[in-house]
Amino acid sequence: MAAGSSSMRILIKGGRVVNDDVTQEADVYIENGLIQQVGRDLMIPGGAKVIDASGKLVIPGGIDSSVHLQQTFMNANTQDDFYTGTKAALLGGSTMVIAHVLPERGASLLEEFEKIRAHADAEACCDYALHVGVTWWGPKVRREMQVLVGEKGVNSFQMFMAYKDVLMLKDSELYQAMHSCKDIGAVARVHAENGELVHEGTKEALDLGISGPEGMEISRPEELEAEATHRAITIANRVRTTERECVCVCVCVSVCVLVVHAETTLAHSALSGMHYYHQDWAHAAAHVIAPPLRLDPNTPDCLMGLLGNDIINVVASDHRAFNTKQKAMGKEDFTKIPHGAAGVEDRMSVIWERGVVAGKMDENRFVAVTSSNAAKIYNLYPRKGRIVPGADADVVVWDPDASRTISASSQAQGGDFNLYEGQRCHGVPLVTISRGRLVCENGVFTCAQGSGRFYPMRSFPDFLYKKMVQREKVPLSVYVYISFTVS
């Protein structure tokens, strides 16, 4: 049968099946796009393609819970559309992405959602879902949020405490938006920075003659994330941020009868802000993301350790690829450098190298932070994020011993710069199977454009709302659902 056929029969033999809670020696049989059997000495029909996974790991396909594809941001169009972005995801071992829809102020959330869906349906190679941005507030937004959750398969909304006059909500609007999320069973995602003080800090930096990429870190100090995180905890039920000060806030809250879940990004868990001071302006500008990378060289190791210890739950790429020419729009003014960097293709390998190889997490925790936890948070589990009979056949044969050297010259993702250039990473996806389709094998991509599908995310995820219901039964307890990451 054709490699792209969802009815293809596949038997993965001799590997070690890794879920977030257990590793076992087992074979995996796939048919009709689903995992049919997991175990030893399986009885299967003839005609199956046999994949030898001896000495390899068999893991759930990655779920990248924050990507930006076919998006215009800060006067620049991202270098990846839904075809190139999802192709890169599959080549890197991720079989599902959750992309962002960011309507302009005053624009219809529903119309922007439908526009992005049309692009994605025609181009995506793997399963995808959509977060929808709440970039302004009013009765129309509230009504459209209800429609998106009730009829369109959306269960998460992105809100911003930064990007003043563009994306930022006032505290009262944030409260109303989060209250609506709770009522309709959606997940509230919040970019937590003090937008007012970022605005003032930016003006001060420019007045001092600071115009290069280092101005990004200088104007957005770490304490502005910590303050916004604390403020969002006070008024909301879910917050996203990255830095260690903010982690401390969240951990302190979690021991006070609060429920905390956290998300960070690949760049923040792997790189430091010293890149902003690189003598090559293009190199420095390529690292401009928001919130910015931090100067403390210990921050990435700290975040990786928190991922390994279940304090941070998810790592996303926050993929938003721009090229050097686009970044150069801010050559004389750092505020005009588009925020974003590529990473959807490298997320899995970099986390394996810096997490598992470095001894900060085991193989089960790797599966949790790259796949299973995102599936649980967004109500995809166990159809996604787990190798078990009945689950979607999103499976990766992972070679923990093989290595590859990351380079922009060989990447499938967009952009002409790679933040991890020259890094040698152990952990390579040898085979990627998406909904039972053999889409990548030994670096050869065989998936057709538009063969992916929109995957509706159901409201009221048990992973979050069961805790909420239970905690509300406890006298004097407080429930806050928090996620922190960057965008």
UniProtKB/TrEMBL annotation:
Coiled coil regions in record: none
InterPro entries: Amidohydro-rel (IPR006680), Hydantoinase/dihydroPyrase (IPR011778), Metal-dep_hydrolase_composite (IPR011059), Metal_Hydrolase (IPR032466), Metallo-dep_Hydrolases_sf (IPR050378)
Origin: domain of life: Eukaryota
Gene Ontology MF: a single term: hydrolase activity, acting on carbon-nitrogen (but not peptide) bonds, in cyclic amides
SUPFAM superfamilies: Composite domain of metallo-dependent hydrolases (SSF51338), Metallo-dependent hydrolases (SSF51556)
A cellular component annotation (GO) from this entry: cytosol
Alphabetized Pfam families for the sequence: Amidohydro_1
PANTHER family: DIHYDROPYRIMIDINASE-RELATED PROTEIN 5, HYDRANTOINASE/DIHYDROPYRIMIDINASE FAMILY MEMBER
Family (UniProt): Belongs to the metallo-dependent hydrolases superfamily. Hydantoinase/dihydropyrimidinase family.
Protein name from the UniProt record: Dihydropyrimidinase like 5b
Taxonomic classification: Eukaryota, Metazoa, Chordata, Craniata, Vertebrata
